[in-house]
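Appendix B, example 12.
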Amino acid sequence: MNTSSNLPRVSIITPSFNQGQFLEASILSVLEQDYPDLEYIIVDGGSRDASVEIIRKYQDRLAWWVSEKDKGHADALNKGFSHATGEILAWLNSDDIYFPNAVSEAVSILTSRPDVGMVYGDADLIDDAGAPAGQFGAKQTSYRQMLRGSVHIPQATTFFRADVWRQVGPLDLSLFFSFDYDLWVKIAKASQVLYVPKRWAKFRIHSSGKTIVNDDRCYPDMLRVLEREGGGWLSWLRLRMIARKALYSWMPWKFRLRLRKMLTFK
């Protein structure tokens, strides 16, 4: 991609494992961004489907890529970020998609707000075929609100400063589901996080996705983060976990989307 010395470099990491059916759309959504200085890294976990062939189609436009066994999602991301040279960092999972102006709009906000360590926006929900499936209930949150369970951050829309990452990273490999929540809590504790009402990504909800398959592992991970931050056993977060289970954990995932705006944090 063309570069401009007047703009900060943005490094985007895509972790992937056996997501060949969605991967190319994600890759193209990054490569077709209108931002001039973008560094793109793909970390594949040793996929056995067509993923590697898809990555090779675009390898001349990648800063670095690898396909090898890893320790999971967070490990793949840590590996990718270790190769990143950008001043602003982000990751796009291999089943999600950026809107064309996502990077340039995020950079514009971060460059105009030096007090902000991370910015995030709105995300549409889509299904396996890419058809609309609703909207993510994004809104402004804070460190204290996150510890109460009010997260409301669509991961695919997050962009954060590399110097903040160096301060609070890497991702905790022991948190299978909520390593991103853990990162946001750490960033919000160290800096300011800012929500802007702009559509930056499409977040894919599908039957084999991590959010659906391992949904019951979300709150135990989040409670571990709360305990680390000094929270007690009785908390708003634990009450939200109980309410979530009682209200809809038994529902088919398509019905859960109707309650997502109120109770879903991934």
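The two ends are 31 Å apart (CA to CA). The CA atoms of residues 7 and 108 lie 9 Å apart.
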